Amino acid sequence: MNISPFFKVAITVIGIITVNIVSAQSENMVTVQGGTYIPLYGVDSTAVTVETFSMDIYPVTNREYLQFVLEYPEWKKSKVKRLFADGNYLVNWESDNSFGNQLAADAAVTNVSWFAAKKYCECQGKRLPTVDEWEYAAMADKSNPDARKKESYNQLILDWYEAPKTFNNSIGSTFKNYWGIYDLHGLVWEWTMDFNSVLISGESRKDVDKDSNLFCGSAAVGASDLMNYAAFMRYAFRGSLKANYAIRNLGFRCVQAKGKNNKNVTY
Amino acid sequence: MNVQPKHIFMNTQLTKKIFLSLILAVGFGSLILSCAKKEKKVYESTADIPANREMIAELTSPPHVPTPVGDRKAKLLKVDMEILEQEGEMTNGVRYVYWTFGGTVPGSFIRTRVGDEVEFHLKNHPENKLPHNIDLHAVTGPGGGAESSFVAPGHEKVFSFKTLNPGLYVYHCATAPVGMHIANGMYGLILVEPEGGLPLVDKEYYIMQGDFYTKGANGERGLQPFDMQKAVDERADYVVFNGKMGALTGDNAITANVGETVRLFVGNGGPNLVSSFHVIGEIFDKVHVEGGDLINENVQTTLIPAGGAAIVEFKVDVPGTFILVDHSIFRAFNKGALGMLKVQGEKNKTIYSGELEDGIYLPEGSGIQKMPSTNGVVESEIPAKSMEEKMEFGKATYMQTCFACHQAEGQGIANAFPPLAKSDYLNADVNRAIDIVLHGKTGEITVNGQKYNSVMTAQTLSDEEVANVLTYVYNSWGNSKKDVTPAMVKSVRNK
Question: So what's the ipTM on this one?
Fold first, then answer.
């Protein structure tokens, strides 16, 4: 990836800001205790161990993102490089310096690319969650760390697909899960660090075998695997993305690794 | 495939050319003759048919189909298809979020001819939540296009394919979970006509069956979410033509005139059920079995597999209303798989003597019917909060349960089912009316001076529903405007 000159400046700025922001932001994060689980699709469909990390309680909002673009003008609507964000980047924002009155200040920011989301998190001294981290945190309902087998949990997720215009709902308007995190389901999709590492790597031709899981294999899922349908949709959605896409129903939140030797990110 | 030369056309062409060649020098003449021969060219493979000029494909919503290809040459055909996730009405008072190709279920009809090179633009509306793709059974290639068309919301994918085999094909979304995308309405038909086109007929229509799975039972009001468990168990709540109940009945019926030949392009999107497609009172003169080349003649009912299609043709000889059904008959009368073809024109008493009652084959609704004598009914649904709601809910129940016999305006059917409009029998005794709805009625009664001797089955409705439907009946069509309450129903029930 070709990183533009601002990067150097950004690093300096981050260096100065990080210390303050980390302590300030941490109060809006909660700890997710590590553990081992079997995701719908691990890279090889085996158990995945996630180390303890902390996650933003809410998705990043329009208000917060506005602060970010004011601080880092290269991420303003009209300034952003097309390589890093397509033509839908902040498409519903009124201008470079305002999201306007059609969008709620405390609604999740959407129409942001992966590059932008990643940069935002880095500037807060955080990073995007991995798919494994995100799925691990999101399999909790109000009272259980793993509610994937519960019918009510799955129905709640499926219902979201049928609710129109949820992207403009306020953060915190869905339920608080076992870890104390809101809105993992029910508002918007969320970017993950390695969104394209499972199933589809960007060059779909060489992934034909993996793709077949997505396109046809799902038909083989039996009734006992009902829980997978909601997850299927997330994986399918992630598989359709490219890193510069900016989509109406796609936002993000950030995480922080706890220990210094955290192995959640292996690349 | 062998391409049939059009003899008459070629002959006149040839004559012209030969005439020209006589006038011109012999050398030139032979040159022109060789040109004429070239036009006759028969391609060994349909893959060799050249497609030159560009053309924008005409797309139509059901039940309409685009203009036949006729004798046009193979072209570069541009198809623009937009995917929309949108709320629609399954039946009165029941809403459903459909996922659609082009805003309708089934999706827009695509009409091509063999040898066309189709440039397919698949657009996923920005407000949509999910990625989609399209698998066209008319495509020769991996995934039928699914791989190349996987498109995120707010994006557009373009791919192209050449139509090699003539026939009627299903297209559908093939994004995981595939069954759910299809169950929500993501299917349609693409026709590939042979060289020179299908023989012309008078009327052509587009019909596609699909099964739907909702959280609530058939008829339960409100926005109904998709029910994955029922879909996996193949327990459909609705089996319908063209995406909803009533899409092809009443004012939406398809039409023809006596003496015309009707061609129906019939598809089955599934996701689960196979259709036994039948038109009551007609025999299919021709069926392109499974949408292919094989033509069967004189067919009563043709089987259409899920993810398959058939072309059926018949000449309509007599006027009347012909009912299109899935002859797995409870689907037709209780789950919605019912459409109408209305034929106008002169009667032909030799072919059919008449006496057909227009509209007698109407949906009976989802209420489980029993012969008189019943006990125990599940109390259901949200109570009506106002008179308006009572009328609205009552009408919904009426259209589902009573409409088939008593008809839309309560007029009944002469000599068979008594009228409810301005009915002296109804207005005379409200408790008797409640009792009949609850327990059914057999034997002779006199209504507005006419004798009726028939059976009304007991209706399995809750007190709430009975109160609503009777209030609706009493406050419509010149009746006495009584307000029937659930308490009144309860007291009759407990008698």
Answer: 0.73
